[in-house]
Amino acid sequence: MSSFNPLTSILNQNKLEGPKYVDWKKNLDIVLTAEGYKFVITDECPRKPKNATDDQVKAYDKWVKVDEMARCYILASMANVLQHQHQSMRSAYDMLKSLKEIFGEQNHAAKQTAMKVLLNTKMAEGSSVRDHVLKMMSLLNELEVLGAMIDKESQVEMVLQTLPDSFQQFCLNYNMNKMDLLVAKLLNELQTAESIIKQQAPVVALNVEKASVSKSKGGKKKKKAQKVLAPGGAAGVKKSKGK
Hints:
Blueprint: H1 8-12, H2 21-35, H3 39-42, H4 54-76, H5 80-86, H6 92-102, H7 104-120, H8 129-145, H9 152-161, H10 168-176, H11 183-199, E1 204-207, E2 226-229, E3 235-238
Antiparallel strand pairs: 1-2, 2-3
Region (Disordered): 212-243
């Protein structure tokens, strides 16, 4: 891996050695995605077409070149013993398939843990919908890296199921209008809904008890002051009128 590429430091510092497979795979995905090479680890090497057109030949040659680069990234980020086992494999796809078989138990356990966290995640009433959805997106991405297949529609449904009661109307509208959004776009819509929900929050009246109750000049006890909180959060004390 070239020393001038800052991305390579991610793999240099996190080489694949035994129990580090899950973290290594996450880092490999980051690097290959940034370089535009990730497609070669998800698709098998295509056969070179016979009687191919110039465009088909160029596409095939591009795939081969990208695959070579991906293989170099993978081999350079392995422990020596793993390099020896995989250097003769013809494609990055085959390498990842072999590694998945070797470290399958780690991958399976990590996938179960991530899925459990995802299913148990709920947004607390009054908390930030942005932070919540970003957390959900992170968990969904982690599951994808670990090999879990969750379609886009199911991802959105999982996010909607974790929202508190204040978003019930939003969820109802979403389903009734048969909206079809990706999670990133859904986040924008939820943030808009959140601002509307906050504006519609009711006025809350709090009775403030005084430390001691003193008698008025007429011998009667003073009425308790009532503190009123406006929707914007400003507070004022409303005093009762004397007779």
